[in-house]
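thought: fold this chain, then report.
action: predict
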Amino acid sequence: MGIVLARIDQRLIHGIVVTQWAGHTRAKRLMVVDDVVSQDEVQKTAMRMSKPAGTGMSIIDTDTAITNFNAGKYDDHNVLLVVREPETLLKLAAGGVQIPKVNVGIIFDGEGKTTVKKMVSVNQKEVADLKALKEKGIPVTFHFVPGDAEEPLETYIK
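observation:
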């Protein structure tokens, strides 16, 4: 099956992902793709402690993810992919990784960012990256938790 959903969530693996999204997507593997976190043993250990029983977890860098997906390593898994930035998803897609849908969950506020929705603030690059994902034919939606209404990118980003 491969990736069932890609979620942009700057908290990466946390309560909502573990208790709601993992079950909703029937994920058998939670996968964090992040070039910085994949090198941080403390963060990796903390995230691994929160994974549901019976669920695999990978915390890897972008290049490893591209190599593994292209080699078919996760073809028999339902993978919930979690990244911090839309740019990571663009790199994965450019590397041949099939992404069926992008869920924008949490992008923190910061300098040079505009809040477009509760829990989502974006800068110009993030806006351009989200639009680029959509232009590649990948649906991009805002969806904080599974019980909320799913809203298309254009609802908040024109």
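thought: worth noting. DSSP finds five helices and nine strands in the chain.
final: tokens above.
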